[in-house]
Amino acid sequence: VAEFKDQLFHAAGISPSRILEFSCGHVIPGRQLLPVALAQGPTGSTLDFTFQNREKPLVVSNGALHTSQLYVGLK
């Protein structure tokens, strides 16, 4: 968390006194959590889930397709 705060907030000049931190345990056990970073979907298109693009059909369908392929691969 400290590295994240340094890179995101402190680098932007935000005073540490303005940063509030809250954390709690996961709802699911860590052994059942698989973090995955995806830059492209199965069709090769960029997965850009920014506010402007997150509802575009191509982004949603590629994200869903990639997620379903990961799920099938884990079974």
TrEMBL record:
Alphabetically list the UniProt keywords. ATP-binding, Helicase, Hydrolase, Nucleotide-binding
Q: Which GO terms describe its molecular function?
A: helicase activity
What is the protein name given in its UniProt record?
Answer: ATP-dependent DNA helicase DDX11
